[in-house]
Every structure is written in C-alpha cells, then in structure tokens.
Amino acid sequence: MNKPYVVKLPAGMPLLNANQRLHHRPKAKITAEIRALTMEAVSDCPSLMDALAAAKPGPLFRRAHVLGVLHPATARRADPANWYPSFKAAVDGLVDAGLLDDDDHTQLVGPDMRLGAKVSGGQLVLVITGLDAGADPLSNGAW
C-alpha cells in the first residue's frame, strides 16, 4: 500500500453538521471556507506538495482512499457521520488542490468517518492513501 498523507485542517474552524438546518447562504459560506482551508492545509504539507509537483500535469492520485477523522470539541458522545457535509466539502478541497481529478466512485473510496480524540475547538483530519487502479481496500470477497 502507498504512503498515506495526513492533512490537518485548522482547529476551531466552522463545521457543517447534517443535523443543522442552515439557510443556503451561510451553508455555502461555510462550505467554501472548508474547501479553501483544505487547499491551504494541502499547501502547508511539504511532502504532499513535492508529490503533487512530481505528478504534474495530472492529479497526484488516479484512485485514493480518504479516512476522515473528526476530533470533537467536547468529550460528549458524538456521531462522526453527522459531520458528512464537512467531510464532503473537505474532499472537494482535495480535488480543488489537484490530488484527484474528481471525487466520484471510480476515483475515491470514502470518506470513511471516524471519531478521534477531543481537540479544543474541534478539528477535521484527512488521511489520504493512493490506491492501485480498481483497488478497493474494503473489498475482501465477502460482499
């Protein structure tokens, strides 16, 4: 398996939760902010930027798996799947940064969302692993 890259978004940034009932304008603003902050976090990772430069003119990955880790702001019980809108915006930011051409099922497995340790303000962390063409890390023949 390929070396994973870890992209840490800033702690305390606004996040979207599936349980929120936001008007489309504030939701669009937060979505755009998550996408932009994801692109910035990619550019702050020297090893990822070196790999992107070496992959040009194409994307870094033809196919990848994304593990999304939610580090909640509190120690209360949490359902990381409720933060899917935030993870989706962050994955779109990975596409914007050039890691993938698109985030459809032929190029992306995930994001698989997990709960991490408490972080002041809350934080999203993405772990991106390149896959061989057609490879699916979840396929073991049992499905």
Can you put this structure into words, describing what you see?
The chain is of the alpha+beta class and 143 residues long. The protein has a single domain, classed as 2-Layer Sandwich (60s Ribosomal Protein L30, Chain: A). The chain is built from 3 helices and 4 strands; from the N terminus they run βααβαββ. The chain has a 4-stranded mixed beta sheet with strand order 1-4-2-3, with helices on one face. Helix 1 (24-43) crosses helix 3 (84-96). The mean pLDDT is 90.
CATH fold call: 60s Ribosomal Protein L30, Chain: A
Number of helices: 3
Largest sheet: 4 strands, mixed
Q: What count of structural domains?
A: 1
Write the layout of secondary structure elements.
Layout: E1 5-8, H1 24-43, H2 46-55, E2 64-71, H3 84-96, E3 108-115, E4 123-130
Parallel strand pairs: 2-3
Antiparallel strand pairs: 1-4, 2-4
Helix pairs in contact: 1-3
What descriptive keywords fit this protein?
single chain, about 140 residues, alpha+beta, 60s Ribosomal Protein L30, Chain: A, 3 helices, 4 strands
Question: What's the gist of this structure?
Answer:
The chain is α+β, with helices and mostly antiparallel strands.
